[in-house]
Amino acid sequence: MSVEVAGTASAKADGWVTYGLPVVGGLMYRDSIEIDELKHPMEFKYMRLIPGSGGAGRFRGAPGCDIAFGPKEHPITVIYPCDGQHFPPKGVRGGTDGTCAEGWHVSANGHETKLPNVTQIDIKKGELIRGVDASGAGYGDPLQRDPRRVLHDVLERWETPERARDVYGVAFRGSIDDDTLAVDEAATAALRATRTASATA
Prior knowledge:
Number of helices: 4
Number of domains: 2
Structural class: alpha+beta
Distance between the termini: 49 Å
Radius of gyration: 19 Å
Low-confidence stretches: none
Shape: elongated
Helix content: 10-25%
Strand content: 15-25%
């Protein structure tokens, strides 16, 4: 199992969730978890994107993924290569950094032991391997991101409402729970003007 890197933003586009590695270049395909569990003696506890983990910017980095799996019955041997644990992807032109990758061996009682960059480990039923992908870095000033893109990211649960306000300077009206969430354009303009004035003072 390899923990992949989420895509870093570019001057023209957001980072791809399926970026994988530089040699993959966004062409990575994942089987469904159900298919993997049918084909292999392993089961997944979860595989989920981490809201708000991508580097912020005019174009944002892709969020990282949190995944945990273990054996169904009999012990399995896991070869775990997890690069990117020491230095996060670097944001450019005002974009913020992504997050580092991490990996853990989770014992049956829930105790987590940090894994090195590359390891081979035998795990038994009840134990898990948990890995977090490095998220992508951002490109450009987050305050210049199109508010409609920020809204889309919040609705997709790739971003959080808190980061939308605090990092991107985007204010909303309505609620995400009843599908009425929308950009408050006047409040967003005022919030961004205040942030810009503070940054240049």
